[in-house]
Amino acid sequence: MQHQPLAERLRPQKLGDVIGQQHILGEGMALRLAFESGQPHSCILWGPPGVGKTTIARLMANAFDAQFLTINAVLGGIKEIREAVEKAQIAQAQGRSSMVFVDEVHRFNKAQQDAFLAHIESGLFTFIGATTENPAFEINSALLSRATVYVLQPLTADNLRQIIAVALTSLADAAIENIAEPAIERLIAHADGDARRLLNTLETLFHAARQEGRHTLDEQWVLKVLGERLRRYDKGGENFHDAISALHKSVRGSHPDAALYWLCRMLDGGTDPLYLARRIIRMAWEDIGLADPRALQIANDAAQTYERLGSPEGELALGQAVIYMAVAPKSNAGYKAYNQARDFVKKDQSREVPLHLRNAPAQLMKDLGYGHAYRYAHDEPNAYAAGETYLPDGMKEPNWYQPVPRGLEIKIRDKLAVLRGWDADKGGG
């Protein structure tokens, strides 16, 4: 008989069994009301691993008596989407509704995400996407506009304590009568809000205890069985969020040894190396930027290397990337400019595109002045249309991007100064 993991055996079968996420599942809360309405709707479940995204999706399908179709965006593609559509069409012909659950939906590209739109619009199926990444950045706006985003939180220590209690009372075959409080605290800290990690760890412990005929799990025995896996996630400040903060700040502070130390601490503590790879890429964009564009390439290459080689070989690539990030020239000029632009657009009115910048694929548009007097930069001296305006009419030059005097941005700053000089000579400001 095929072994069923503990996390799957204890997966809640009804809404009342779900532990945590009461801010959306509690009485009168948004997702709870959606369940009670009897009207399914497409949604995006956004939250870290092991907090109940898949469970909630399955419960929604059960609540609405819908066919539950799953696609893993890491492993699937257009072929799997087509197969899901065909199954949904068969179910629809039989008078039954369908729900298509896409795990890790952020891993789908734009074309793959767009493939769902027409079917969501037609009502062929209800779409449920699960993602660990910010949907605002990873999900197409067209898909986002058709789905409600629900934010799931990491499970609290009390939530995880409840799950441990459920595991003890539900598994008679485990023969575990008690887990000592210090051991529970170790397990909760190690789980870091992830129920799946907690249950997988418990399963390892239950199996080992059964082999030894042990009925009580104390802290020392737990440490002996799990070894170093728990060491870096105990109390006293040695926790996940502090460690990732220290890593990022060490890179920003140009201290390669400290950056390596915190990277190795997190790897030693069981942090997912791919999570660390994503954070290293973020560092390249946020703290190095255009001062050294090679940093981004190295960060991406390191992530790809880990995906190809795995552990431990791929971790060397992450270490070398961290060293490069730390010693690279730093600039947050692009990061600041982007945030300023986003803030401006969010608060500003909708400004029209100037006529000379508009596309004119049809004669009618040309007759209306679209594209008139546009200066093609490549035909201008130095391939630069000095004095030309590209901002909406009436908008002042914001000067958001201010290159720093470090790395490649020294040259960028000098070039911008030259271009502005040419603009001034043409009376462009």
Question: How does the SSE layout of this entry go?
Answer:
Elements: H1 6-9, H2 22-25, H3 30-37, E1 43-46, H4 53-63, E2 67-72, H5 78-93, E3 98-103, H6 110-114, H7 117-122, E4 126-131, H8 135-138, H9 141-144, E5 148-151, H10 157-170, E6 178-179, H11 181-191, H12 195-212, E7 216-217, H13 219-226, H14 240-252, H15 256-268, H16 273-288, H17 294-309, H18 313-327, H19 333-347, H20 363-367, H21 409-425
Parallel strand pairs: 1-4, 1-5, 2-3, 3-4, 6-7
Helix pairs in contact: 10-11, 10-12, 11-12, 11-13, 14-15, 14-16, 15-18, 16-17, 16-18, 17-18
Structure description:
This protein is an alpha/beta fold and 429 residues long. The chain folds into four domains: 21-151, P-loop containing nucleotide triphosphate hydrolases (Rossmann fold, 3-Layer(aba) Sandwich), CATH 3.40.50; 157-233, Helicase, Ruva Protein, domain 3, CATH 1.10.8.60; 240-327, Zinc Finger, Delta Prime, domain 3; 354-425, no CATH class. Helices cover 52% and strands 7% of the residues. It is built from 21 helices and seven strands. The strands form two sheets. A five-stranded parallel sheet has the order 2-3-4-1-5, with helices on both faces. The protein has a two-stranded parallel ribbon with strand order 6-7. Strand 2 (67-72), helix 5 and strand 3 form a beta-alpha-beta unit. Helix 10 (157-170) runs parallel beside helix 12 (195-212) and helix 11 (181-191) packs across helix 13 (219-226). The longest helix is centred in the middle third of the chain and has 18 residues, at 195-212. The model is unreliable at 231-238 (pLDDT under 50).
